[in-house]
Amino acid sequence: MEYAKPVDxxxxxxxxxxGALGFTLLPSFPGKAAASDRIRxxxxxxxxxxxxxxxxFANLPEVEIAALCDVDALHLGETRERLAKIHPDRKVDTYGxxxxxxxxxxxxxxxxxxxxxxxxxxxxxxxxxxxxVYGEKPLSHNVQEGNxxxxxxxxxxxxxxxxxxxxxxxxxxxxxxxxxxxxxxxxSTVRLWKTGHSPELRPSGVQAIPKTLDWDMWLGPAPLxxxxxxxxxxxxxxxxxxxxxxxxxxWCHIADVVYSAIMPKGLxxxxxxxxxxxxxxxAPKWLDVDYEFDxxxxxxxTVPPNVPGAAQRGIGAYFEGDKGTLxxxxxSREITINGETxxxxxxxxxxxxxxxxxxxxxxxxxxxxxxxxxxxxxxxELTLPMHLGLISYRLKRELTWNADKExxxxxxxxxxxxxxxxxxxxxxx
Length: 429
Prior knowledge:
Rossmann fold
């Protein structure tokens, strides 16, 4: 097993990292690094986000894209053509099976933008093969998978960055500084929200598997089922076998600012309320979840809460302190203290190191062998409550959590949902 070797850290060209829905805005980079200094990366999963991965990393001079992989030959061909327009002078290998990439000793790192149910197995196998990983959010399909990932990352001394790109944004960094400064006092309550409902997917019925698609491998660890286009590209997120709806899609983006600023501890109770959508999907149409921690109450809602400034934001966080409040979304914030609302408190110093850009931060970490900003240990803590909210939704009742043991108290039915049985053929890790 060959590991990527650390090299001397250079002065990296900075890139901006803020945009709608967490997408990174990249400038054009002049020149390129010497071949011996470049990180060789392969991209696995080439849908919409996978193509964003490809574009982001293709524009970093320290990176050479060595391979592309997708179970749909149509996606694979289209992405290869897009890459050729960016780097017409470079050859890239293409694969339908990601395991062939992991077998290659000349590839240093991979990115994962598959559906959620594949994230953990691919990342774990990559760690075992000596690869570093930039993995799309959510971190994993269930709690046990996140634990498996962290265990293997530590065992094989790998680097991991979760792709919640907004984590690198200036606004989030500044919000964290303001909260940690104590300007609004001790925070007792946080309200999070993301508008949007799971759609009604009208079933078109079982269909022939497209000739370009390896459906069995697309399903992988998930239960075997007949092919229906609604369950695949674009709308997989609305099925609990593969994801967790709008809630799972956006939790990591906006809860991220809470965990960066406060890192809630001692989760005790989880109570979810939601509705199953009409049609084929079973991920919640809408979902509200109440969380009780040792010294914090956190609420997730599908509609904005009834607090100042929330109605104008489709996604947001509202911090309630004993001296004031702070409301924010991806790129704006308002602080209210003693009835006065401002967007900045200049006297609070800048204490958080600013990001060179989410993807650049990953490349830096691969070279330095230091974990990046949204590392796996942090990402697992951030993702855990989301999984528990979905379990409460599925069981339709409040749950009591033992944070030390990471188990539900006296609840075999709930504990069973912390993991799931993987199809034997695809239990690879």
